Amino acid sequence: MTKLDGDLALDPLWQDLDWAIGQMLIMGWDGTKVTPQIRNLIEQHHLGSVLLTAKNLKSAEQTARLVQELQTIAHQAGHPHPLLIALDQENGGVNSLYDEDYICQFPSSMGQAAAGSADLAYKIAKATATEVSAVGVNLILGPVLDVLTNARYQPLGVRATSDDPQEVSQYGIAAMNGYRDAGVATCGKHFPSYGNLDFLGSSMDIPIITQTLEELSLSALVPFRNAIATGKLDAMFVGGCGITNPSMSVNHACLSDQVVDDLLRNELGFQGVAISECLEMEGLRNEIGVKTGTVMAVEAGCDLVMLCRAYDVQLEAISGLKLGVENELITKERIYTSLKRVLRMKKSCTSWPKALNPAGINLLSKIHPSHLALSLKAFDDSIAVIRDNEKLLPLTSSMHQEEELLLLTPLVKPLPASSMTKALLKAKNKLEAPTLHDKWVHRDRDRGAIMSVHENLINRASCIIIVTADANRNLYQAGFTKHVSMMCSMLRASGQKKSLLVVAVSSPYDFAMDKSIGTYICTFDFTETAMSALVRVLCGKFKPQGILPGTLRKSRKVLKSRQHWLVEAYNRDRDARGLDDLLQALARASAPAHQFLLTTSAHTFELFNPNIEEAHFVVRNSSTQALYGFCATYFVQNTGIIGALFVDPAKRNVSIGRSLQRRALRGLTQKRGIKKLQLGMSFPGVFLGIPADDNAGLKQWFANGGWDLQFPRRLANLTLASLPSWSAPEGLLQSIQRAGISFDLIHGPDNADGVLAHIAAHAGPEVCELYRFALQEGKTCGVVRAKGHADSLLGTVVICSPGSPLAGFIPPLHPLSPAGEEEMMIGGIVAPVVAAATPQAVLVLQGLTLMGLRQNKAHKALRSVLSWVQDEAYEPLVAMGFEVLQVFEEFTNSPENWQDLA
């Protein structure tokens, strides 16, 4: 049997290229029942992936039956693997499946960010994926990873998280983890970006990206890069937009090898399934035709080519791929490369037992109550009151019972997913033509009829509520709202009571910066559950806590920067659990290189070392016991060290970190005999300094806090992933022997002659304490010494066996996923200290590492982690087979930098 790769066998039927081509297509159709056309595509053309839309789905029960029928057709037709069943289920206004009895509404991506909790976003994603998985869906087309670079004028709106690439990364990765943990495959979108599109420059009605690759790399590509780096992104949706800049001219991104093969795969390192935009796009069909377009998509590097619903066009695409093979434009190797990727994804998210027997209504009925409670909480948490200058909220306090309330809205589309909606949609006329971008993205949101407003209604009412949706892209809504606002101002000037509230039920950018709108509320969604939460806010049932996304929130930082938080001493009994929760939230929000936070716990920071003074601080919610921030400080041999400074990702930009650092520095600078302050610590080895891949702007933050960051010491953690199969580079041992370098291994403090003196001369005082700890832990730790002529000490390194107590203070020595016994077998090679001035320094370091690897092998370790390698010394170790896990920059400053804190 032919092999696709090391673990995936290629069934003999794939030698028939018709079968293989069928796996490279994802297609849909219109209708709630299986049609002869979709049946024919599965049976005769071996279609391997099906796209479901709202036009296919009426209820959860009907969806489960429909999917089960599709999978049964595929199974009976001899498909070796189940169909991929894909669905757009982003939440908010983009839900292909809704059933008020079984499938819950949740806030949009921006609404979830407004709730301020990546953990909540994870729970929502997991709940969403669990629900759609129960009806047979195994691929969610999400998360949306677009950065709203030009947020006010982009059609994605609340489907995207914000205009901050780090915030988009944080919530995108949280959603991705939620989908994956529910057993559903993920698909990031819309690569390279739909977040800053120009709809005015194309003769083919195709939107254009005009940013340079450098500009894209600094913003739009950041969430895609971070999501890919987790290794958990199964697929990537490549958009159909054009790109026009000095270095690239592309008409359709998904048809360009510059975008798919070069940028997505080679530069960003994506190894999963690339899915093209729907090739039924009018501009694409008119320009090059579907046959050629399908071939171009595959040539560009796409693995799945999407054709949404037109049967004749779908047959044309199949014919095009076959012609591409006949014309030798597409090779068998290219087809099998895509086939391998698609089958690998299928293997991860489905199987025949699961596909033919979806959990269905039985599971949905059990989980619905808890998911409904999560939905209500999420919508409540997302409501944001941006301004209430006149203190109109709640209306139950600002209005008398006999006064009239007037609700005005330019919107005519009723709330989605309700029986009322379905009835009213039939009778509604569309009075406004769709815009260019509305046509392009196939949005179903109907544009509103203009509602006339009679002045006598405004005269009668004492309070007017205006509801807007994307008014920044709709001149009528914006003008309507400003007109009513002016009328209310004039009537107030004449002595009448005229309160005005504006509610944005989609983009928060409508009137966020317009101070003439005195009371401004954002719901981020126009769903029944969101409107129910809004009513409860208006009635004073709860106080809304939602926040603005991205730079809108940061634009208010001037006011928030004056905020001072109460900083308390860390109390183990009270705060340990909260610190564990904070560390988990940080891990979920961090870039993949820093996922070691998953194996960090509250105990990691407490050394109980008589030679090290500890003082740790927290900012906490005294009512809920949640920790908003944590700072660990240490004082050893005249050096004050900040060994950790963490802030809850949902609570950043409100001065929590500033308050913690100020308190920590005040305590350290008052220590008797202090000579220097250090940012970063090797023992415990959680926060070695500022990450070198500083995407979050930490350097600037610390610089603003008084640190001089000109002279860093670079520190790296490395790993050797497959220790049993590793062998020493040829000639290394001979070079060491020729240099006259010898090694010995010592255990226990009694045999530590000269070791601590060597450390004191070439490393910081905390490294001395790390060595002292290792020597006292004689059973699982030891120190390898490198000696030269006359037994002169050239270098040292700590060796620890799997499960050593030292691993409790150095998180990279713990496995990220301790699911199996073998995964626990990680050997440690820690804190190599070599006299750098010697000509043999590189050879000594390699020799110490070689001895460490031999010891790790002897202890049955499956991989080794080499922690705390200084400056550029890791480069010779990479040549030995190591890979870099993280690189940090440690800084030392004089206490005089903070004299004002004394």
Automatic annotation (TrEMBL):
Signal peptide range in chain numbering: none
A family per Pfam: Glyco_hydro_3
UniProt entry keywords in alphabetical sequence: Glycoprotein, Glycosidase, Hydrolase
Domain Glycoside hydrolase family 3 N-terminal, chain residue ranges per copy: 18-344
Single GO term (MF): hydrolase activity, hydrolyzing O-glycosyl compounds
InterPro entries, sorted: Acyl_CoA_acyltransferase, GH, Glyco_hydro_3_C_sf, Glyco_hydro_3_N, Glyco_hydro_3_N_sf, NagZ_Beta-hexosaminidase
Gene Ontology terms describing biological process: carbohydrate metabolic process; peptidoglycan turnover
Record-stated family: Belongs to the glycosyl hydrolase 3 family.
Name the record gives this protein: Glycoside hydrolase family 3 N-terminal domain-containing protein
Organism of this sequence: Staphylotrichum longicolle
